[in-house]
Amino acid sequence: MRFTAVCTLLLLIIPFPALTIEALAQGSDAEAGDLRPGQFIWHPELAPSGEMTVLIDLSKQRAYVRRDGLCIGVSTISSGKPGYETPTGDYTVLEMQRVHHSNRYDNAPMPYMQRLTEYGMAMHGGHLPGYPASHGCIRLPLAFARALYKESNIGMTVTITDQAPSGEYGTSSDASDAHAGLQSCEPDESP
User: Which domains does the chain have, with CATH numbers?
Assistant: First the structure.
């Protein structure tokens, strides 16, 4: 248990270089569909203020973040594995803790935890193998979880769906979109 606490503390205080993630986030032509497990795109400067919302798409294992109507981030996720499926629905962030450990699963670290339900479902930093692997939570890349945590607040709306985004999270065909690498919150699926 002491080893887990030390490892969690080190993860939270040692800055992680974003490596390929940083290259994607620096305004490349990458889109959400190009992301590999653990990668994300983050541009909060596109909408420095306003209401922020998160859409979790279980079918694509992606999180889409909008603020003031603009897409500011897209990330890979890992949701609940078979037998521990992440429930769909509309939630609000009920609690936020920078350092948190699971009360149910061997004191597992849940850095940058944003609780969505009273029974324990949350968004937090964790391992992303490229498929659903959690006990129901939404795992995010650690650097993305940290960045999202800094911009989030209690009461933020989080929608979890098992269908591809549409409407305000839908595709944009405008290649000159000002999202600097985001183009839209969802890649165009047309051939």
Answer: 2-169 (2.40.440.10)
